[in-house]
Amino acid sequence: MKKTILLTGATDGIGFEAAKKLISQGHTLLLHGRSREKLEQVKHSLAQLNSQATIETYIADFSILSDVQSLADAIKKQHTKIDVLINNAGVFKIPHPVTDTGLDVRFVVNTLAPFVLTQQLLPLFNATGRVINLSSAAQAPVSLDALRGLQVLSDNAAYAQSKLAITMWTIHLAATLGPDAPSFIAINPASFLGSKMVKEAYGSDGKDLGIGADILARAALSNEFEGKTGKYFDNDIGNWAAPHPDALSENKNRELVNVMQQILSKHTSD
Description:
Strand order of the largest sheet: 3-2-1-4-5-6-7-8
Oligomer: single chain
Radius of gyration: 17 Å
Largest sheet: 8 strands, mixed
Number of helices: 9
Shape: globular
CATH topology: Rossmann fold
Structural class: alpha/beta
CATH class: Alpha Beta
Number of domains: 1
CATH architecture: 3-Layer(aba) Sandwich
């Protein structure tokens, strides 16, 4: 059965490799990127793999939350139903890690933007839908002050905290949204894959990106991920696993999401 799949961060790295796998199977792909030129290049490359497939492209800068809102609005104008959302877009090392509004870019792109997009698109999902969130083996306790933009973190610390934060809100939404909501799954696609992000951060070529692309395609489509809402899949071991203990605390998850909603109420419009 063909699916409509929204994939963020689709112009390079794991996202582009996952898009190639999904388009080869004939699914309708809604591809997000920051660059119109890169998106057109990706669309052309994918069309060579499957000339019959439907490919749409959407531009948004995830460090600007109003862009994320506009992205959601544009998708809702074109679609009444989405089957899968893969929140893949992310950043690690960035020259200017603070937004114009005073927030940490790593938290905005890796944690807040996918939360906004997911919340805005929830009406387009039914109970068979899936939201796949990119987590990481790097998970560190979240400083709520850093999330609020009141504390400056190193690249490593900000990345690890932002990835625990997305894992926490994944589990929180799974626990609180009820039976008609889509499944929410957090995934570590595998450590030190050869993405641009890893090369910039560590100066290493990293492992085959196909490892991460494979697990994203499986998570989007495979029956093995059915009914696994609120779970964390660690592709370093190839199995379901326990995330950082903080993500298993209902109180900590609720507190994090409350702070996120307070931040978003100041930085986004209804």
